[in-house]
């Protein structure tokens, strides 16, 4: 009966012919949380409500309301024509329209066009941000729907201001505007919605709230969510929410909240209904303001600035707490656990703090079922702690400093345990081959623990497994046959980074959704999957054969495919239309050949495409124009040819990484590449590209303006970065760094890597002065071309530059003095050019080996052995007549000649201008010598 996107109605006919109606409104799961709201149970004697009609009806919707809906649709931009297609003038029964719910009298009671409706027309596997959504503003025609009780516009692209007339819809009980693009100030008129029970503003990051005093009018409100709204200027936020008598759930995550002053929350002891409060991702260093919220059962204070001990108020005031989350703070004193011992706590989360020492005595927590303390600094052995865990259902001790050996006896009392997470500790499991654990686990995470060398046989008894991670656990023996049958429920399986040398069966279990077998010694053909596979990582193995298994996958399910560093071969002409939801594809370092298939243009959700180091040939198919979400395109080290397409710059404007390194591309660098404002890595090296470097490269905004680095979107498979282990794998590319190729896989720091590599081509002409404006460049390589002219005078502006290579060109003139400002430079090669003059003096430049300046015969000064005469080299000056403006040696020769001529001319003018006057003018001559005689007599009288 449940319908995720709307309202469910149950009719009960009583003896007095009155209708009992139960409304259950289920808030659709968002990326932040999953929650369900039971809104109300109401008996109404005459007026039925919110009937979702269909088929034959014995009533007709009200014409004025039908016209209002048509007018509302007219103001929308609808990308997918299937959306709201039955909203048309020919369809008179508006109560049968998608997303419309009516009363038995034909009055529109609910407008439900949120994500639940939209997702029916889009692939289910794509991200919630990818589906086609409605755009537009809330038009005034909604004012003509006075009986509205529910409005759901969530997960669309509505924009503009929230109109104040919404405050006149006095019957409104459910209002959901989450994850749109509304802006401006939230109108205070919304405080007139006294019947409103559920209010959701989540994810409208441009909305402003100047005060929450208006909320006091929402006397029926029991659910409020304002995640992501800026409430930093609302000092009355706590007082406002605690004045609402019916309020039970409040979500104020990421609202930039500060603790209110004492006069804003006072010492009121009136009973409150508030039971769930989410204040995560704010700016609280203290939580004393919570002391009066004695009814709170669920409190989230994660991602704040709490430090020191766990606050005392949790044991003295908030004694009804059932769940407490203080993860991602700066708590450091584990003795604060004693402050929690008297509470009725069921769940405690303290991940990512700085807690040290030993774990708490679980006997002080008689009700505790869940404890997670991952990413802290706890140490010591776990023996005693595990013996106290007889009531535990979930235990997460990952990423601490625990060590020692755990044996069978240590797990004897964990009979209720369902989730065991010990990853990233120095723990070894030493259990017998025949051990049968006392628990049935759903989740096992033992990453980086010592489990091998044999495959853990005790897993055979775990029939409820959903999630298994035994990666990097020292397993070197083959996978036993029983492993493929241990659970028909297993969805996530990670056995990566072991030394397993084995051949997989032809088919893997159909339940597998996320599979990581990377970095082993697996061989043979790739297995087939009959499941709804979402993530597959078989990289760094020895698999061979084709990738035809893609043709057996369910259409649209695969999001992530990584097969790099294998022995795979054959053509890429395969079933790409079946994996059209793919976001990441990495086939680097295999033996694929042939042309890139035109069907790759079907990958319209692709964000990262890596095909480096194969034997692919031919031109780039124009169908890649459709891959407009690409952030990374790496086609290096193949045999691709033709021109660098202009559409790379016009159609793929979100590119952050573009690498065509080591192919056979020719012609020129198209100026259209200058449209790639987000570009951070441009590698066109080792091709046959000719012509000049475009001067418009200064349009690479991400390379020059601070704070504008492109945000590389994460492919989210889970909230916990350790859970799936893909945090370092989203984007992988190879770069030439300081003359050596490196694989760059840490996408978390991609924003710090800004480089241009145009080396080993046939480029000519001058280096554009505009390159010196790319202030964030870390590496610049223009070597092995035919570039002429001078090094840009302002190159010293690139103060973040760490690697600079301009060797093996025909550059001339002096090294700009501004290069002395390059304090971060750690690699420099200016060899094999026609540079001249003295090398500028700086600690940095003189620290390089002389080889960085070799084969520039006119250079002098340290670190070379060529001495300088004044500011000039003592070498003979060549007499070839070239234009000085091109920075040649002849230009220097002419400059020297005119320097000496000007000295001679100045001497003649100065000498004869003074002495000639004394010779020709007797009276001046007599006065001059008379002055000299007086000076002589004066000096002699003083010193002689």
From TrEMBL:
Subcellular location: Cell membrane
Ranges of residues in domain Leucine-rich repeat-containing N-terminal plant-type: 63-103
Transmembrane intervals: 21-42, 897-920
Membrane topology: Single-pass type I membrane protein
Entry keyword Repeat: yes
UniProt similarity note: Belongs to the RLP family.
Protein name: Transmembrane signal receptor
Native source organism of the sequence: Lithospermum erythrorhizon (Purple gromwell)
Phylogenetic classification of the source organism: Eukaryota, Viridiplantae, Streptophyta, Embryophyta, Tracheophyta
């Amino acid at each position: 009966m449940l319908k995720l996107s709307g309202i469910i109605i149950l009719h009960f006919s009583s003896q007095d012919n009155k209708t009992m109606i139960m409304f259950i409104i289920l808030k659709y799961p968002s990326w932040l949380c999953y929650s369900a709201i039971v809104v109300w149970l109401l008996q109404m004697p005459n007026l039925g409500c919110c009937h979702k009609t269909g088929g034959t009806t014995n009533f007709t919707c009200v014409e004025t309301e039908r016209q209002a809906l048509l007018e509302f649709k007219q103001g929308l931009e609808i990308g997918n024509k299937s959306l709201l297609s039955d909203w048309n003038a020919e369809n008179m029964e508006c109560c049968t329209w998608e997303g419309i719910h009516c009363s038995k009298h034909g009055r529109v009671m609910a407008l439900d066009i949120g994500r639940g409706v939209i997702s029916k027309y889009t692939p289910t596997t794509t991200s919630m941000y990818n589906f086609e959504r409605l755009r537009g503003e809330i038009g005034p025609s909604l004012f003509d729907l006075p009986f509205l009780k529910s409005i759901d516009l969530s997960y669309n692209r509505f924009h503009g201001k929230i109109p104040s007339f919404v405050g006149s819809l006095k019957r409104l009980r459910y209002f959901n505007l989450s994850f749109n693009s509304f802006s401006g100030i939230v109108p205070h008129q919304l405080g007139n919605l006294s019947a409103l029970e559920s209010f959701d503003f989540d994810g409208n990051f441009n909305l402003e709230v100047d005060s929450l005093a208006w909320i006091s009018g929402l006397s029926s409100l029991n659910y409020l969510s304002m995640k992501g709204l800026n409430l930093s200027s609302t000092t009355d936020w706590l007082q406002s929410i605690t004045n609402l008598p019916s309020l039970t759930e409040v979500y104020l995550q990421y609202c930039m909240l500060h603790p209110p002053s004492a006069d804003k929350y006072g010492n009121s002891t009136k009973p409150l209904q508030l039971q769930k409060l989410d204040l995560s991702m704010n700016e609280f260093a203290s939580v004393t303001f919570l002391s009066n919220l004695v009814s709170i059962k669920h409190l989230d204070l994660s991602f704040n600035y709490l430090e020191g001990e766990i606050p005392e108020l949790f044991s003295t005031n908030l004694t009804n707490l059932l769940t407490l989350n203080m993860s991602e703070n700066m708590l450091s004193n584990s003795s604060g656990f004693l402050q929690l011992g008297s509470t009725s706590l069921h769940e405690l989360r303290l991940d990512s703090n700085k807690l040290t020492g030993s774990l708490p005595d679980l006997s002080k927590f008689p009700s505790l079922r869940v404890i997670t303390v991952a990413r802290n600094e706890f140490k010591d052995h776990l023996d005693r702690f595990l013996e106290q865990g007889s009531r535990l259902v979930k235990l997460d001790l990952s990423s601490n400093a625990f060590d020692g050996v755990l044996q069978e006896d240590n797990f004897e009392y964990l009979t209720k345990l369902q989730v065991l997470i010990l990853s990233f500790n120095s723990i070894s499991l030493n259990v017998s081959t025949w051990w049968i654990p006392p628990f049935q686990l759903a989740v096992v995470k033992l990453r980086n623990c010592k489990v091998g060398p044999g495959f853990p046989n005790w897993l055979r008894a775990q029939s409820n497994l959903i999630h298994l991670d035994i990666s990097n656990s020292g397993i070197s023996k083959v996978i036993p046959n029983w492993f493929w049958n241990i659970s028909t429920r297993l969805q996530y399986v990670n056995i990566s980074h072991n030394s397993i040398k084995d051949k997989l069966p032809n088919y893997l279990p159909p339940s597998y959704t996320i599979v990581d077998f990377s970095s082993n010694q697996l061989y043979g053909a790739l297995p087939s999957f009959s499941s709804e596979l979402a993530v597959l990582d078989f990289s760094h193995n020895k698999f061979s054969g084709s990738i035809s298994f893609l043709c057996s996958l369910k259409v649209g399910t695969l999001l992530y495919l990584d097969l790099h560093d294998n022995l795979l071969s054959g053509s890429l002409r395969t079933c790409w239309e079946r994996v059209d939801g793919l976001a990441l594809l990495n086939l680097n370092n295999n033996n694929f050949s042939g042309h890139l298939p035109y069907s790759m243009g079907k990958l319209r959700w692709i964000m990262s495409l890596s095909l480096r180091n194969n034997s692919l040939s031919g031109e780039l198919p124009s169908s890649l124009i459709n891959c407009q979400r690409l952030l990374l395109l790496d086609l290096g080290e193949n045999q691709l040819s033709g021109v660098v397409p202009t559409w790379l710059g016009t159609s793929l404007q979100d590119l952050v990484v573009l690498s065509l390194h080591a192919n056979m591309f020719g012609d020129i660098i198209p100026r259209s590449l200058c449209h790639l404002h987000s570009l951070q890595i441009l590698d066109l090296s080792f091709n046959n590209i000719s012509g000049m470097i475009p001067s418009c490269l200064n349009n690479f905004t991400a390379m020059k303006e601070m704070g504008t680095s492109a945000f590389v979107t994460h492919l989210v498979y889970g909230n916990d970065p350790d859970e799936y282990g893909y945090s370092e794998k989203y984007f992988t590319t190879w770069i030439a760094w300081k003359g050596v190729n490196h694989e760059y896989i840490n996408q978390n720091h991609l924003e710090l890597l800004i480089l241009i590599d145009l080396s080993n081509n046939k480029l000519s002409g001058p280096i554009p002065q505009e390159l010196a404006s790319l202030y964030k460049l870390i590496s610049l390589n223009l070597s092995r071309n035919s570039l002429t002219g001078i090094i840009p005078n302002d190159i010293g502006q690139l103060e973040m530059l760490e690697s600079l290579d301009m060797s093996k060109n025909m550059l001339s003139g002096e090294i700009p003095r501004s290069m002395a400002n390059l304090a971060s430079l750690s690699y420099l090669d200016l060899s094999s050019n026609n540079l001249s003059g003295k090398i500028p003096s700086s600690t940095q430049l003189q620290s390089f080996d002389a080889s960085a300046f070799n084969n520039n015969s006119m250079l002098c000064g340290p670190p070379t052995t060529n001495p300088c005469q004044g500011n000039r080299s003592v070498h003979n000056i060549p007499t070839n007549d070239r234009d000085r403006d091109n920075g040649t040696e002849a230009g220097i020769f002419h400059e020297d000649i005119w320097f000496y001529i000007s000295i001679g001319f100045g001497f003649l003018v100065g000498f004869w201008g003074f002495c000639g006057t004394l010779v020709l003018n007797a009276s001046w001559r007599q006065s001059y010598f008379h002055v000299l005689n007086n000076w002589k007599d004066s000096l002699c009288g003083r010193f002689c």
